[in-house]
Amino acid sequence: MTTAGASTGVTIEIEDLVKHYGEVRAVDGVSLSAREGQILGLLGHNGAGKTTMIRMLTGRARPTSGTARVCGCDVVHERERMKPLINLVFEEQNLYERLSGRENLQLFAELYGLPKARVEELLEAVRLQEAATRKVKTYSSGMKQRLLVARALLNRPKVLFLDEPTRGLDPTSAREVRDMVREQARKGTTVFLTTHYMEEADELCDRVAFLSSGRIVAVDSPRELKLRYGERTATVLLDTREEHTVGLDDPQDAERLQAWMAEGRVLTVHSREGTLEDVFINLAGRPL
Amino acid sequence: MSWSRIRAIYRKDMRDAFRDSRVLTALLFPLALGLVYSFIFPDEIANTQKIKVGIVSSTPTRLTSVIPREAGRTVDLTFVTVKGEAELDRDVQSEEVDIGLVIPADFDADVRAGLSPVLTTVLPSSPTLSGDVAVALLNRSVEALAGQPPAARIERRSLPPETGGDTAVIDALGARTQFILVATLMLLAMIAVYAVPTVLVEETEKKTMDALTLIASTTDVIAAKALFGIGLSVVGVPVLFIITRADPAAPVPLAAAVVLSALVLVGIGLLTTRVFRTQQQVNTWSGVVMLVILAPAFTIGLSAPAIVNRILWLLPSVHTFRLIANAFAGRTLYPGEWLSVGVLIAWALGAYGVLWWSLARREDF
To answer: What would the pLDDT profile of B159-187 be if each residue is shown by its tens digit?
Structure first.
């Protein structure tokens, strides 16, 4: 890649992106960017516009207005050039159930013009070699998700989109998927992730954008967001075995804590910074 | 469009189709129906007139290949080379052969030169049907060999075969062949308006289409589905003919008619997916579409009112049936073959044109 965006390390550049479906403003003036190796999380309620964003950025939906460049390619006018540089793990487990895991990957390897060896490499990477000849309909949900990830990694994408990649997975499978995502980012792939799980976003993402009613209401690193918008609290255990939660930013609570300390009544204090969920509730007005 | 991507999707569809009970049913039902018809109706080949001809000829002649061509499918001719005229007489007398033929040297060249060489036929003492048929065929064949009728011989006026009438078609083809052709049309229709839409709608419903179009274009996917439908038809029709022991007289025009018809019907099937977007809708409504497509085949011989025939004439399946009936018979049962080809091409252009237009005007890709 020698395009402008890629040479500066910026792989996703979105400016004032709008998508209307009739009267519905699914995406309403979003501006964002992401760099190589960065994991950008997009959080929002159902219907907030997350999937529409991914559809536009992967060249499958035409923006009503605004511009978006992925890997230096305009998502509308340079779609065909962009296609081999990106990939997507879909929200749905959209695999060919009557085909085997290997046949599924071979189809897409052929579509990308890749050698068969790449299929075997990925089957091994996602630990599906032994189940490779089995029909996908016999796979567990976790195995299907690993196969979806393998399919999305076939073409070694510069930008990897993941739409709710761990939804419905058991903790072990979810952990495996998260590890794979981290590994890709470490290799320099930009990861654009939508999720409902705040803990997941907190753990994985370098930057998080909150999308509410088609608009970005905040974007920053999880730590900065929590510090800026989250409520810092402390859980205090008194000598009477009573437990109190006090707000560290609340002057009255701070005075109460100081008094307990002066009286020597405090047994333990556990401070806690705000969670991303708190931040989201503060910004969007309701929990996810 | 990318041919390599179309081929990859087509191969996947073929592999997947034979594991899909719905597609298999769509294929097996008309095949089974054809098989049932072939058992219910008697084999027309049993009514063929069999004639054994003994030949004495000192030089090679094309007459033995011209006579069967002139005889057509209703006469089954066997030629036996005999050493001399005496032996030939004995064979005719003992009914070893139905008729004897003594062909002079250089017969073919002399006929072409207009020298009227003498061709001797040896017939049994009592007249036989086989002998009369053979003599009649001989006259035709010599004319064909000479490229012109012989000078001052018996004038024969051949009536043109009756064409176009449904009764004439049934008479010419026989009930068995007619029903096998109905099964053929049903097979083409099942593939085009049920199997192909089922496969395409499943891609949309299960969102595998989204995965494909991440790298391939929608046009690639649609082209692969069209190829899939045509491929199934091209494989399915010969299988139907093999299991029903059907023997088309003109296989090449028949193959061309099947491919052109499959192209048209698959185009219509693909077009229906712009309206029927779920498997349930395909299940519910493809039967109606199929009924319309199959109507012409089932109205044959029913003396439908002229207005009905005029409406049916507009349907592509009428022309499919006409072309495959002609190809099967090896002669013109329905006149206006090129018009039928033209109508089918017009339907193909219309179906794929509307499909392309509806894809192009989508808001999203």
So the answer is: 444 455 566 666 667 778 888 888 999 99
Q: CA B32, B34, B37: angle at the middle one, nearest 5?
A: 110
What's residue B108's pLDDT? 82
Average pLDDT over residues B83-87: 87
Which residues on chain A are in Cβ contact (under 8 Å) with B217? Answer: 80
In a domain, B66, yes or no: yes
Closest alpha carbon to A109 in B18, B20, B4 = B4
Angle between helices B251-272 and B337-360 (to 10 degrees): 30
List the domain range (segments joined by +) for residue B158: 49-163
Indicate whether B47 pLDDT > 60: no
Decide which of B305 and A193 is more confident.
Answer: A193
Average pLDDT rounded to a whole number, residues A9-24: 92
Domain total of chain B: 2
pLDDT, position B56 = 87
Tell whether A94 is within 8 A of chain B (Cβ): yes
Chain B residues touching A108 at Cβ < 8 A? 211, 215
Across the interface, whether the CB atoms of A60 and B214 are under 8 A apart is answered: yes
Task: State which of B131, B163, B195 marks the end of a domain.
Answer: B163
Q: Is pLDDT of B99 > 90?
A: no
Q: Which residue has the higher pLDDT, B45 or A32?
A: A32
pLDDT the model gives residue A93: 93
3-class DSSP assignment, residue A43:
strand
Tokens (6 digits) for A287? 């929990």
**b or e along B164-173 (b: 16 or more beta carbons within 10 Å of the residue's beta carbon)?**
eebeebbebb
Report whether pLDDT(A17) > 90. yes
Two tokens, residue A230: 């989250």
Residues B279 and B138 in one domain: no
Nearest to B95 by CA among B122, B76, B74: B122
Architecture, CATH, for domain A4-227: 3-Layer(aba) Sandwich (3.40)
Same domain, B37 and B65: no
Mutate to test the interface with A, among B5, B11, B14, B214 (most CBs of A within 10 A): B214
For chain A, what is the radius of gyration of the CA atoms? 22
**pTM above the 0.90 mark?**
no
Residues of A within 8 A of B363 (CB-CB) are: 62
Report which DSSP code applies to A135: B
Locate the domains of chain A by residue range: 4-227, 231-272
Q: Is A103 on the interface with B (CB under 8 A)?
A: yes
At residue B155, does pLDDT exceed 60? no
In angstroms, the CA B231 to CA B235 distance is 6
CB atoms within 10 A of CB A131: 19
B208: which chain A residues are within 8 Å (Cβ-Cβ)?
Answer: 94-96
